[in-house]
Every structure is written in structure tokens, then in C-alpha cells.
Amino acid sequence: MPKISIVIINFNSRNFIQSCLSSVFSQDYLDFEVVVIDNGSQDDTHCYIKKNYPQVIFIENKENLGACRARNQGIEASRGEWILTLDCDIILEKDFLSKASKIIKNLHPTIGILQPKILKSDKKTIYSCGIYLSWLRKFYDIGKGQKDLGQYDNTKYIFGACSASAFYNRRMLQEIKENAGYFDERFFFLVEDVDLCWRANKKGWKAMFMPDTLCYHFGNSSNTSRKMRQYLCFRNRYYSLLKNEGFKKYFKRFLPLLFYDLPRLIYLLLTNEYMLRGGKEIRI
Per-residue pLDDT averaged across 38-57, rounded? Predict the structure, then answer.
């Protein structure tokens, strides 16, 4: 079985990381290592981990460097053939790693990304069954907000995976790595997983959804405000579009600009004070 490196990012989430690590070290599969990156937490996360999980590779940043930088630090410090990224508010089913490792063993070599089924903490509502990218260049989590009634229980190819819980092949990550990192550190937080998957697709790598591999996500453990999330989603969407398609190709799509982007931009400019800095920050 291939060795798996579990990379977990944390920011002021002591209670969440406790539950997350408990689920990780309760797995019925043992060939893994854990890297935790703490982004300048002001709680006692570092004391808790050092005391209770001395086997964890612990990286302690003095300030919040963003999810992208933290994940990149974790990937660089890890050794596994596959990297499992986790948000600190994820809880794994006990057979999560054993099921994933069996799938990994028999994968086609072009598959570089695996998406588990992520349910919300109620264990009934879907958080993500993968990322879908539409012709209008809208992206969203497949099934998000729907009750899990088995409608997404088939293994299938998808555009990409939600990095709250996703497996990435190290060889693929090395191939698509940019000067800004595996995850583009200019994104800071949000949409970075879309960008990474887009780059992987362009290099010929594929992503696959694994419906039988289950985990649960509480969501927004960092307590980021709704307006800040709106702003980062808008800004980072354009980072990704301009990087992966360019101005000419994107603006050939008149309908996205007319029916989605323009009304959305006007609304956000009128309702979100963070938006005024968005245009200045889009530099690709």
C-alpha cells in the first residue's frame, strides 16, 4: 500500500483539531504520517498537539500566512506518494484511509486527484462530491446542500476536488508546481483548489470521485466573515480565469460577462466594501 501524508491546516481551532486528529489516529490503516501547520493561532493548539500527538510533524507559523502557503509548507515537509489535505474541522470515518488506499493501489496512472464524499456535520447533507466547472466558468461543489440520498454514489471522473478533504498524487503536484507553489499562494484562501485542478487538467491529469470514502465537515472553522469570503471568491475566481484561459479566450464568452459577471460585480460593489481593492489585486 502506498504511504499517505495527511496535511492539516489549523487557525484558532483547538476544539476542531482535537476531533480531527482523534479521527485520523483511530483509522484501521496505519501507513501514514501527519503534518499539522498552525497559522499563528492565539489559542493553545500548539500545546495540545505537542503534548498529545508528539508523532505529528508540527509547523508553527507566527502569523496567518493563508491556507495556500500552509498547505505548501505541509506538502514540502511530507514524504508520502499521496497527500491528503484536510481542513482542521474534518472528521474521518474509521475506514476512510483503508478504503482510499485500496482505490489508490489500482488507479490508472493518469488519475492524480481523488475526491472523497464530504458530508456536513449532520452526516445527512452533502458538502461536496467534487468540483464542477461550467461552460459559463462558474464552479461549485457538486451536490452541496442536498440531502444525501445516494444520488451521487457512483464512482466517476470529475473536474476537481475540494481541498477541505482531497488526495493529490505527489508526482502530479511536482509536475504542475509553479513559482507561487503547488497551491498558488497569491490566492491566500478560497478557489485555490479550483486553480490547482484546472492546471492539472491542462497537463492531462484526471480527478475521480470516491463515494464510499466518507468524511464530515463543519465548515468555516476560521470564522471568516461572509463579506470577506465573497470578496476572496470574486477576486480569486478572476485570478484563476486569467491564469488558465487568458483575457482573449474568456472575453470571447459574451454570455458569462453579460448574464453572470457584470450583475454580480455591480451587486458586490454596492454591498461589499472589500470589493474596491479587488481590481487592484488581480495581477497575473
Answer: 91
